[in-house]
Amino acid sequence: MKVTTYFLLVSLLIMSSLSLSAQKQVKIKTKKQYTSESGLKYTFYIYNSKAVKADSGDQVSVHYVGKLADGTIFDQSYARQMPITFALGKGQVIKGWEEGIALMHEGDSAYFEIPANLAYGERDMGTIKPNSTLFFTVKLVKLKSAFKPYNVAKLDTIKGAEGLRYIIVAKGSGPAAQRNDKVTAHYSGYFTDGRVFDSSFDTDQPFEFTIGRKRVIKGWDLAFEGMMVGEKRRLLIPYSLGYGEAGRAPIPPKSDLIFDVELLAIEKVNYPDFSTLGKDTVSLPNGVKYIMLDSIAKGTPVHPFDTVGIEYMAMFEDGYVFDASYDRNDLLYFTVASGNVIKGLDQSLLLFKEGDRFQLLIPYELAYGEAGRNPIVPPKANLKFNIVIKKVKKGKSGL
């Protein structure tokens, strides 16, 4: 019976406290067995000291065959035709692997004899009995070096708005990012003691957001405005511009934060013209007001329980856009008069037809009320919506 596939992954592992950088350096010869201070025995078949060496935080991909003392194979990656990939030094594999892989370079292959105290110890893992020594043939097939924090020595710290400070590490080029722009960025986030809590650099998955939408911490909305593509900055964000007094897991309360960021792309979102100059404002009995910009005479009227698809821009009274379907290049669909959206929008759409283009002015009582919706909509916020009804699908009302 085999141990569950990917037995090395988090659910079965002993968390490693081994310091990879503290290992004693040994001049390696191939086909010679060495024993580390912890008791790990290792023999290299291929050792290329000129290749990139594994280090803590690196993403490594390893092919392996795992055997017991009697030669029984309890797991191997070759049968799956897929190496195991993990972050070195993060406690995601057994201690013997943490130590052994950290000795290797990309392309190296080796043999590990891992004593029980560096494997599963006294735990019964099924095929792997308590106090078992494990034997692995391993090959480090791929290595992606972890992101290294920016070197900001001798660089000036610039004071930004509301307590934000930042350091320009590398200048960018082209137009500067502005509010309402969609930006794509890499980042690495640290606590003030240097511990990393998140990093897109290491996962190679850039983050995308629209500046000014309050979808990120306020320090980011402030910091990215004015950056150019290719620009690198270190951001020094006080907790008031981060996750505040309460924090949010894994961020403790009142945590000042540090981010190393790189702006990869800026996308200008094209918003349609909704000029209301010279247009009449109509007041409704419920307190909502509307301004008709274009009315389609033969458009399909909206009735209760119809499904509508709309383009929209949602704004505060000062014109600050906090949400827009144009950001996502998609329509918002919902069933009318079913309580799926705020009351002012739900009730008002019954006045319009497919193709109509108009602006709604919705009092806070028919929007998000006295409480608002933290952190985006403040308390007692009157709202404006620029709307185009693009689609109407008749609902169960039969009208």
Provide a quick synopsis of the model.
Helix content is 7%, strand content 32%. The chain contains 5 helices and 21 strands.
Gyration radius, rounded: 29 Å
Question: Can you give the helix content as a percent range?
Answer: under 10%
Strand share of the residues? 25-35%
* The level-1 CATH class of the largest domain: Alpha Beta
Biggest sheet descriptor: 7 strands, antiparallel
The low-confidence runs, each spanning 5 or more residues with pLDDT under 50, are 1-22
Spatial gap, N to C terminus: 65 Å
Q: Would you list the SSEs in sequence order as H and E?
A: EEEEEHEEEEEEHEHEEEEEEHEHEE
Mean pLDDT: 91
Question: What can you tell me about this protein's structure?
Answer:
The protein is mainly β and 399 residues long. The protein folds into three domains: 10-144, Chitinase A, domain 3, CATH 3.10.50; 158-267, Chitinase A, domain 3, CATH 3.10.50; 282-393, Roll (Chitinase A, domain 3), CATH 3.10.50. The chain is built from five helices and 21 strands. It has helices at residues 95-101, 200-203, 218-224, 325-328, 343-348; strands spanning 33-35, 41-46, 59-67, 73-76, 84-87, 109-114, 134-144, 158-159, 165-170, 182-191, 196-199, 207-210, 232-237, 257-267, 282-283, 289-294, 307-316, 321-324, 332-335, 357-362, 383-393. The strands form three sheets. Strands 1, 2, 3, 4, 5, 6 and 7 form a seven-stranded antiparallel β-sheet that branches. Strands 8, 9, 10, 11, 12, 13 and 14 form a seven-stranded antiparallel β-sheet that branches. Strands 15, 16, 17, 18, 19, 20 and 21 form a seven-stranded antiparallel β-sheet that branches. It is elongated and about 90 Å long.
